[in-house]
Design brief:
10 helices; binds FE2/S2 (inorganic) cluster; binds FE3-S4 cluster; 7 strands; about 35% helix; binds iron/sulfur cluster
């Protein structure tokens, strides 16, 4: 295969507005979309803003949308597109633009801070934690997250309804709540923190209607919906309809 020239449309602008600009850029064998953006900077648009770091699919910085689909620019091979196809690169739609392909993802850091961290069991020191391998494996899947926020960007609950942002943590952080709720050593309940109730009442679990778009775009292939969100919904529902919990709540309300 030889080098060829491809047609790109790249969004340029800032918070005051912008639009798609056309470019023709050389493409070589084995290149990814981030290579093209770098060539564009080197040859035609030196002030084009793009966020990236590792170029290895591990830092989660280079998230953007390619032909409308949330993707990592460094992990999207040019070979997935037809040579005569126009390739459109735009910033993540769910977050405010800073400039060109760079968005302000601080919404996600706010949501991260709203999830209370792991509560260590009382009386156990570092090195004394013991867990079944099955429980370790469950957590490890969620720990593969590189915080690229592609799942947060694609979820229609915030993508299409800005007003939901306040109440909805998004798939990445509901997954974090699920991980902690499933953790056999998390002692949050002993401090009075019920993670299942907070998932519903504070992190907006009920807004998720299991469309699974988050799972489809996750570059780490984490089964966000099947392994985190649905089990969390089931556990929260069990909790709500548990007759002992119901009785306890009734007595407490008196
Ligand atoms: Fe990215 Fe997947 Fe983590 Fe979401 S869960 S932030 S898509 S790695
Ligand atoms: Fe959104 Fe994923 Fe639920 S895309 S609606 S969080 S399954
Ligand atoms: Fe690090 Fe793409 S540059 S994930």
């Amino acid at each position: 295969m030889s080098a060829y020239e491809a047609h790109f449309r790249v969004w340029r602008g800032d918070q005051d507005g912008g639009g798609l600009k056309d470019f023709h850029v050389e493409v070589n064998d084995g290149e990814v979309v981030l290579d093209i953006v770098h060539r564009l900077q080197a040859t035609q648009a030196p002030d084009l803003a793009v966020r990236w770091n590792c170029k290895a699919g591990k830092c989660g910085s280079c998230s953007a949308e390619v032909n409308g689909r949330p993707r990592l620019l460094c992990m999207t091979r040019m070979s997935v597109f037809e040579r005569n196809e126009t390739i459109t690169i735009t910033p993540l739609r769910a977050f405010p633009v800073v400039r060109d392909l760079v968005t302000d993802v601080s919404f996600n850091y706010t949501k991260a801070r709203e999830v209370p961290s792991f509560v260590p069991p009382e009386g156990l020191g570092p090195g004394e934690y013991r867990m079944w391998q099955e429980d370790v494996g469950r957590s490890q899947e969620f720990r593969k997250c590189i915080e690229c926020f592609l799942c947060q960007d694609t979820c229609h609950v915030v993508r299409d309804f800005e007003e939901n942002k306040e109440a909805f943590a998004g798939p990445r952080f509901l997954m974090r709540v699920a991980e902690l709720d499933m953790h056999p050593l998390d002692a949050a309940a002993e401090t009075g923190l019920d993670r299942k109730s907070t998932a519903q009442e504070e992190h907006g679990l009920g807004y998720c209607n299991i469309t699974k778009c988050c799972t489809e775009v996750c570059p780490e292939q984490i089964k966000i919906t099947d392994n985190a969100l649905i089990p969390l919904k089931e556990r929260a529902a069990d909790r709500k309809y548990d007759p002992l919990v119901w009785l306890g709540n009734k007595i407490r309300r008196r």
